[in-house]
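Hi R.,

Here's the chain you asked about this morning:
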Amino acid sequence: MKKKCFSFMLCAALLSALAGCASSDNASEPKRITITSAEEALQELKEGNAEFISGNTAELRADLAENGQAPYAVVITCSDSRVAPEVLFNTTMGELFTIRTAGNVVDEFEIGSVEYGAEHLGAPLIVVMGHSNCGAVSAAVSGEAEGFIQNIVDEIAPSVEEAKKTETEESAIAALAEYLNIQNTIEKLRTSTILSQLESEGKIRIIGAKYNIVDGSVEFLE
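And the predicted structure, written out as tokens:
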């Protein structure tokens, strides 16, 4: 009788421990926060930085500060807050040299940044990564933009017009334009004498990619 009672108690304890682990795991999952004022936003940044400093990155930060950075990839992607390369590729400081603009479009400053990452820092891979449900592409499809956003729309517009040659539904036009816009950015990068030479010499590789904001997967367009 005592053995049965002990077995029952042991099973109950194990179940309780497992439930506690599950609850702990759920508690550690990232949660979306709601901030509505600049003051709250600033406070969130301050607290986040304090947590970062007190974390386990001191040794890595010291190494990067003393020995410099040596990223293995340059990533050009959208400014969309849902598309964070360091997060979705599960990397840490010093691994990626990231350039972000709305719609992952590039001009002289961005191309110069890529040149720096490839030539001076020695990154062998350049990835132009668009994403699904891109707001900049949607704006180009609708043709509605204000202020300097119009410059971004104008850059994406040729991809939208090309997509309209084969697609009629707005969502299909946008989805195809996202791919075409990636290719357009790649072609602009190749107008750089530095990058085109590095690529022709086999020192770098330039590829496209598209991030799915729903399932988190990245499709590499090799």
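The longest strand covers residues 125-131.

Let me know if you need anything else.
M.
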